[in-house]
Amino acid sequence: MAESQNDPLLPGYSFNAHLVAGLTPIDSESYLDFFIDRPLGMKGYILNLTVRGEGVVMNQGKQFVCRPGDILLFPPGEIHHYGRHPDASEWYHQWVYFRPRAYWHEWLNWPMLFAQTGFYRPDDAHMQCFRDLFAQIIDAGQSGGRYAEHLAINLLEQLLLRRMEAINESLNPPLDNRVRDACQYISDHLADNHFDIASVAQHVCLSPSRLSHLFRQQLGVSVLSWREDQRISQAKLLLSTTRMPIASVGRNVGFDDQLYFSRVFKKCTGASPSEFRAGCE
After folding, report:
1. DSSP secondary-structure letter at 142?
2. Which pLDDT belongs to residue 42?
3. Helix-strand-coil split of the chain, %, nearest 5
4. In this predicted structure, what is the pLDDT of residue 82?
5. What's the CATH superfamily of 19-171?
6. Dihedral angle computed from the Cα positions of residues 97, 102, 107 and 112, in that order, rounded to the nearest 10 degrees
7. Burial class (CB in 10 A: 0-12, 13-18, 19+), 6
8. CB under 8 A, 24+ apart: contacts of 99-108
9. What is d(CA 64, CA 84) in angstroms, rounded to the nearest whole number?
10. Of 87, 85, 90, nearest to 52 (Cα)?
11. Is residue 209 within 8 Å of 187, Cβ to Cβ?
12. Which of 105, 107, 185, 229 is least buried, going by the fewest C-beta atoms within 10 A?
């Protein structure tokens, strides 16, 4: 094929734009049923999302079977050798070719499948979001409007950010609602001198032992340690933003004994309440 080829699905397309996107529908023995072979890769990046059937990607004697939901990232210069899996009747994949913005560098650092080929598979909760974003990128990129490329690039940026967000969520899963409610209850009762775990557990309909287990599992500290941290944090806020007497600050966060309050405060912060206040002035 000549270099002037205008169909990005066929060999010879120049890919000179900052973003080109489309769907490659490969059915067995169709005109697109051939293996892409670019031993030197391309100048830009390619994202590839399998939507139907199966494809196979080969690199340095290794191969990977792409199934619906799999997203591959080929960086510049990476070998491109892929096509419909011989045992599958079809391989439909959406793709985005792009030149990244400079500040995307961190977002394009994906776990490697092999060589430099990146791989990501969204979990079930996020899968539809990524499918929708791919479709929107393709629609925007092919719309032909004055701002089509800019819209597509912004949608691609959102896709990369959504991946970063999903990874962060998996590393830091959201709090159990009962733990969140327990934290709120404790925060609302910092001045309660008769605090006990049983009252918090009753409020969130858990046994004290179950609450303690969940608390340590999700927050990494015990209920009592978390409460003490909140009391000291609230005391620091009051000392730095009000002229409330130190004894009153202590009572406000549940310490009737000023000397005991000062001792606990210094143990946690390295300074007495009066020293801490003086440092804020």
Report:
1. H
2. 87
3. 45, 20, 35
4. 95
5. Regulatory protein AraC (2.60.120.280)
6. 60
7. exposed
8. 99/18, 99/19, 99/43, 99/44, 99/45, 100/44, 100/45, 101/153, 101/157, 104/157, 104/160, 107/160, 107/161, 107/163, 107/164, 108/45, 108/73, 108/75, 108/160
9. 12
10. 90
11. no
12. 105
Tokens of 23: 């769907």
Q: What is the pLDDT of residue 66?
A: 95
Positions of the chain with pLDDT lower than 50, given as ranges = 1-5
Segments of the chain assigned to CATH 2.60.120.280: 19-171
Q: At what angle do helices 223-241 and 258-269 cross, to 10 degrees?
A: 100
Q: What is the CATH number that goes with domain 177-280?
A: 1.10.10.60
DSSP, res 104: G
Q: Quick one: which of 34, 166, 36 has its CA closest to 97?
A: 36
Q: Taking a C-beta distance cutoff of 8 angstroms, is the pair 66, 112 a contact? A: no
Helix axis angle for 177-188 and 208-219, nearest 10°, is 100
Mention every residue, 6+ apart, whose C-beta is less than 8 A from residue 276: 236, 239, 240, 265, 269
pLDDT of residue 5: 47
Measured CA to CA, the distance from residue 265 to residue 281 in angstroms comes to 18
